[in-house]
Amino acid sequence: MKHFNEAAFDPAASAQQILLTAILAALGAIVAIPLAIPQSASAQTAFTLPAPPFEVPMLPSPSGGWTVMVGIGGESTPDFVGSKNSKFVPIPIFSIRRAGSIDQFRGPRDSASIALLDVGNFRAGPAFKYVSSRKSDKYAELTGLGDVKAAYELGGFVEYYPVDWLRLRSELRQGLGGHTGAVADVSADVIVPLIQRLTISAGPRFTWKSTKATAPYFGVDAVQAAASGLPMYDARGGAHSVGFGSQISYRINPQWEVHAYVEYEKLLGDAADSPLVKLRGSSNQTTVGLGASYSFDFRIR
Amino acid sequence: MRRIVILWLGLAVASVALGAAAAFETRATRLQAIRTVGIVSAIGEEMSLTQAGLTGLSNTGQTASISAWGLDELIVQQATRLLSGRFRVQAVSYRRAAFAAVRDSAVAPVNLLRSDPFKELVRSDVAPQGLDAYIVITRARSKLGNGRNVEGVGLAQYRTLLADYGLIHALYEVRVVDGKSFDVIEKRAAAPLDNTGTMRLAGPSGPVDETFDGPASSERLRAAIADLITRSLPVTLGDMHLIEGQ
User: I need a surface site. Which of A98, B81, B83, B228 has the fewest CB within 10 A?
Assistant: First the structure.
């Protein structure tokens, strides 16, 4: 590996270069950058589209380079929160962005979010999560408990990078639909690039839920108790789960990328003590996922 | 009832399409009406030195003056050459530091809602006034790694557990400012020259290799930055339909 050394600047070339050398020398160690030779690169534009016949007011012109990512993934996840059985869910991968836009680190549990505030190491903005409905006729353990409608959780997120390899993230969301409670997620991820193409990350997670976010999924009222054979249970809010997650991503080449992740969650409090979990499920919740994606560029004139 | 809803929907779609077509006409017409332009460039006074990836807790960005490299003069020269085929390019004077000092707000919606900061600067700082349009070239910003922003001209290092990677960058954006109303007719950030590197920046960048080591590396660095600008400027101006596409 080569070392890019301030002493290597030619001090005799000109007065201007002497000035630069002096400035860079004063910067000390930061300029002493060890370098490697990255792979060779060449243009990979797949095709060019003609310019659109019109443009939308206020929005920038679409002319230029774009990157499309398509792929497929899947995850093995508990049938429902608290279940001891798992199901496999296919996950399509698709994104389109301006060529050169950077893929920010993203955890598998992160909600969909947009960073409206971005000052480099601190980002914040709105967040949204969809929680699918729970149908009692789909799983025997839920017989008699009734359905819980799909929930839409709206809120915000903040994330902070004290250093480039450590992300602290928190989300606070309010449910609509299936539950009307509040949910808070807190996580930390240590992000270690082993080489340029291979990154691993891991860290702890913690979730808090209000009573209104907990009761629809873990409470058992008198009617449900009679229909399900489970004892009545008044599920209250509080610490919901603690866990640990890890993911690995490898960019095989500029086009292909593969990734895998595992998320473990231990239900706590009233969620863990619910008869649905204690008698018919498990407080240990594990999700394992993997995926592969292919990226290509195109241009719009 | 359903027919009425469909008719209203069709009318709404047609209105949006016609409105959008009218907007395109306005932008295209405004570009076509331009005969004389002046070029303002303010990206090349400072070079940033940035580390990302596995960095220390006290890691902060550094800058070094590179005003002696004459990058802005190079940009004006290159842009003049490229645009002369279509426009009459006139030399203009301006306070470079004033243009270089403008920064986007960290709150994205503010940038969408507020008036473009260069609008007023072109009105008050550029002479002569009265040209049809002014081409303003200033620094652009990109993420490097997860928690670092880099902008303008710079040298960056991405540190991993097993290897370190260096790259140079010249991130800039181009605005076409109307010479009468000072509205920004078009704005575009220079795109990457290729999209094949695994370490990406949202603008022209290139790898640093061992040729930057040894004697006269400063001159090689300057030449490499100049090469990024020289190669990306025609593409960017082409994307903006200011010259024939590359």
Answer: B81
